[in-house]
Amino acid sequence: MDKIRKIESVAQFNTQRGQQTLHPLVSVLDQSKSTPIHPTRQLSELYIIFLKDAHCSPLTYGRNQYDYQDETLLFIAPGQVFGFDEHEETLQPNGWALAFHPDLIRGTSLGRHIKDYNFFGYDINEALHISGRERQIVLECFQKVQYELEHAIDKHSRTLMVSTIELFLNYCVRFYDRQFITREHLNKDVLIRFEELLDTYFVSDKPHVLGLPSVSYCADQLNLSANYFGELVKKETGKSAQEYIQAKVIEVAKEKVLDTGKSISEIAYEMGFKYPQHFTRLFKQHVGQSPNTYRLLN
Fold first, then answer.
1. How confident is the model at residue 86 (pLDDT cuts 50, 70, 90)?
2. Between 20 and 30 A from 240 (CA), which of 18, 19, 145, 166?
3. Residue ranges of the HTH araC/xylS-type domain (predicted)?
């Protein structure tokens, strides 16, 4: 396995690229001015956003690779592994990079809500592809942070930089909403495969072996990150992925409850519930009647 190197500071991130550090907690780099870097996989302790130009080298993220056919925004959070497939040649970075240490936003509004930006947990084919106009907005935000870095540090510097980064991330929320719309046909395909996955799950022995299907299990089977999958289902159906799964569970349960050859407890275990009372509680919550009452009335 390739050795994974840690990126522990903004200064280290800059030094790897042969660029100057203007602030210990945040940096904006024009990657065309960076020195070539040696391919390696890295564990980030920083938040890093790459604005990648078209046709650049394929960056590995986790076990997968991003698609760089268009200009793309990539989001990396502390604790995530990224990097390049190892080979002997050095690579010339391009595009732009924004990197900041968690300490920069600690105690701020952004620090309290940074986990709400789900795209820091998105996977390979879920990267944000942006238009020319969107790219201009991204660069304007980067340049505002760069201006503050080149300005003498004063009591306003941190507030202005953090608020600009928060503005940039809020724009990215809008851009992702647009991407969900423009990829509507792909999203419909995911929902069809999601429905087929659940249908197949409940006619197999998986409920007995694995229990009830989880959001993370379904996302993994569909080759999506749990965060992106959840956003997609919510935007397309108005339900959370968990609510969608529960609706399918109740649909299947209604059919099974009408089979009087099995007790309610047997049906509960067969569907993947650890305890029959959990099955009864969920059924009554959604149907308005207990499984036994539903069976008798039907």
1. low
2. 166
3. 219-297
In contact, 172 and 125? CB cutoff 8 Å: no
- At which residue do the structure tokens 């938040």 appear? 47
Confidence band of 88 (pLDDT split at 50, 70, 90): low
Q: Are β-strands 81-84 and 96-100 bridged in parallel, bridged antiparallel, or unpaired?
A: unpaired
Classify strands 96-100 and 26-30 as parallel, antiparallel or unpaired.
antiparallel
- DSSP secondary-structure letter at 238? S
HSE-up (13 A, CA, CB side) for residue 112: 4
* d(C-alpha 287, C-alpha 83), whole Å: 49
Residues 6+ apart with CB under 8 A from 276: 264, 265, 268, 269
CA distance 30 to 42: 20
Q: CA 271, CA 283: separation in Å to the nearest integer? A: 12
Q: Residue 36 corresponds to which tokens in the numbers above?
A: 């070539």
Written as six digits, the tokens of 189 are 């395909």
pTM for the model stands at 0.81
State the burial class of residue 23 (Cβ atoms within 10 Å of its Cβ: 0-12, 13-18, 19+).
Answer: buried
| Percent of residues in the chain assigned helix, strand, coil, to nearest 5 | 55, 15, 30
